[in-house]
Amino acid sequence: MKKLLVSALLSLYVPICGAAEFPLSVKAENGVVKLEKKPERIVVLEFGLLDELKLLGVKPVGMGKSDNTEGQDPAHLQEFIKDIPGVGTRDEPSLEAIAKLKPDLIIGEVTFISGLLPQLNKIAPTILLNGILGDPAEQVKNLKILASITNTEDKVDGIVKHHDEIRRKAIDLSMKSKPKTVLMGFITPSGIFRVLSSNAIATPILKDLNKTNLIKDTSVMHRVDITVEGVLQKNPDQIVILLTDGDLAPYEKLKANPLWKDVRAFKQNQVYFLDRNVWAKTHGIEAMEVMYEEAIQSGFLDGTQQKLSSNKNNI
Q1: Prediction pTM value
Q2: What is the pLDDT of residues 25-58, one digit of tens each?
Q3: Is 157 contained in some domain?
Q4: Does 47 map to a domain?
Q5: Where is the secretion signal located (predicted)?
Q6: In this structure, is the dihedral angle defined by the CA atoms of residues 110, 202, 80 and 64, taken in order, positive or negative?
């Protein structure tokens, strides 16, 4: 299965020759969008797609931001976006703020803003893609689309090869240990454990890394709430707590439950702390590179037992 996925990825990064010619017809999730000329003023409403524009060296004039429950915008994008105006959140952008920027192209996430498509199209041609829900192959597809729009096709091959090298390194390390069952999620300030569902994009990525998400339920929000009793019933080999801006306080509330000491992953020092921004919030190509590197360095992939005093990513 892993060989097939790698082959699929490899097949997607055949070098593209020649610059795109305009008018250009772009096949997107909202149908074929015709662009009369190369866009110069792009507004992007999803972090994964912003991630890929960054890799292509294209800076948008406006962007959708995190909402107030998600913490800061992704760390790997912060330097790049520090002077890009916000236009509201990714799923509830301000039409007025977008219009003021006079964009000639709007790019967004199909699951977030399909309902706003008629209004957005009145401002500028709008392309909707699978950004946050795109698996690795889908992200390469997005990269190619964005490259054709911005005449940066010559960068695609190198970007994807670099990504695949990091991904291959993570897979190879994960295969050195036995397959592991996992619960992965974030904890609310009140101490509720929200684990990623089977249809969350992290689930197939975990499978690629020799891990199995024990949650089989699907959810529109890509997460389900689970009690400590539910964790005990699932009895995972490993637990991953996705931290919001590195905040451990919600986990301390969860850990205060006396049943937590009976959780096998806790007793065996297999509770890991990774970044919610990249595992549950954005899945662009660079974000996935950060994800793989974090999984390697934390010890999560090979089950390395580390003390909090020596590595803050594991307790």
Answers
A1: 0.82
A2: 999 999 999 999 999 999 999 999 999 999 999 9
A3: no
A4: yes
A5: 1-19
A6: positive
